[in-house]
Design goal:
With 317 residues, the chain is mostly helical. It has 17 helices and 2 strands. It has one domain: Farnesyl Diphosphate Synthase (Orthogonal Bundle). 74% of the residues lie in helices and 1% in strands. It has a two-stranded antiparallel sheet. α2 (18-35) crosses α5. The longest helix is centred in the middle third of the chain and has 27 residues, at 164-190.
């Protein structure tokens, strides 16, 4: 069984103490129980991950004592996230995920699609055990947003006219809405203050920093060569900004990129314009604003949320 959380988020566990550690272990066990009914689903869960979304659920409900309800909500959010990864691998024709062979590559399109469907449906079955219409409505809305964001990304592939506003809308749908839902589910289960705006801002920053890392990150850290987004036609913020500064990039047709070496060269051109750093600064501003906008709550919860936001930045540093 994978570790439920790793650096740079250990500081949150140290702050909140044994109850949060036990909660993260409990959700890991529950994820394995749910996924254990099917080999490919279990393979997906055993691939691990940061478990950042479950952590958001627990921190949003910190101190409430609603352990069972929070654990179900945390498992549901992670199952949705895992389902999207499996489906993404099908859409992207991806051979590897987190250094492991994808279900799509090992067992084919039908098996991968069905596994993603199983994980989606299991998420709602688990959350329904909380008997909360509000929680189900929150996760349902986030799941619909994910699908719409994926459709928008597919529609935007290879295009040269994607605007900053459209990019941010896509990030909102595809990433930020599930972060926001994790916070909302935790607050609903634990009867805590509303934290969806915090989750939204952190989710947007997460996606932007991930896109920056595709341009600047070394292969030994990211598990892939720089420029993977360029090769599959995904238009991200660094490219949008760089096109305004470089005639070469303004005229670039992503379909003309010949392979990984050419993609790597274009990443260097993007980075040289300062666009990657500008995108990173935009993400840092979102993180700072997310901390400033935190509602009144317990000092421990507020500090845990601040550490979470800072840990997200540290992960991409």
């Amino acid at each position: 069984m994978s570790e439920p959380l790793a650096e740079p988020f250990d500081a949150i566990l140290e702050l909140a103490g044994e109850p949060l550690r036990e909660a993260m272990v409990s959700v890991e066990q529950r994820l394995h129980e749910i996924a254990g009914i099917e080999l490919h689903a279990l393979y997906t869960i055993e691939a691990g991950g940061k478990r950042l979304r479950p952590l958001l659920v627990f921190v949003a409900g910190l101190g409430s004592g609603a352990h069972t309800a929070l654990c179900r909500a945390a498992a549901a959010v992670e199952l949705i996230h895992s389902a999207t990864l499996v489906h993404d691998d099908v859409l992207d024709d991806a051979p590897l995920r987190r250094g492991r062979v994808t279900i799509y590559a090992a067992a084919g399109r039908d098996a991968a699609t069905s596994t993603g469907d199983l994980l989606f449906s299991s998420a709602f079955a688990e959350l329904a055990r909380n008997e909360s219409i509000a929680q189900l409505a929150s996760l349902s809305a986030a799941s619909s947003a994910l699908a719409r964001g994926e459709l928008m990304q597919r529609a935007d592939a290879w295009r040269s006219d994607v605007t900053l506003e459209r990019y941010l809308e896509r990030c909102e749908l595809k990433t930020a809405r599930l972060f926001a839902a994790a916070c909302e589910l935790g607050a609903l289960a634990g009867d805590g203050p509303p934290l969806a705006p915090f989750g939204r801002a952190v989710g947007l920053a997460f996606q932007i920093l991930d896109d920056v890392l595709d341009i600047t990150g070394p292969a030994e850290r990211t598990g892939k060569r720089p420029g993977a987004d360029l090769l599959d036609g995904t238009v991200t913020l660094p490219l949008i900004l760089a096109r305004k500064r470089s005639p070469e990039l303004a005229a670039l047709d992503l379909r003309d990129i010949s392979g990984p070496d050419e993609a790597h060269r274009i990443c260097k051109v993007i980075e040289a314009t300062g666009a990657a750093e500008q995108a990173r600064q935009h993400a840092l501003e979102l993180v700072a604003s997310s901390k400033r906008s935190l509602p009144d709550g317990s000092p421990q919860q507020r500090r845990a949320l601040e550490l979470l936001a800072d840990g997200l930045v540290e992960r991409f540093a």
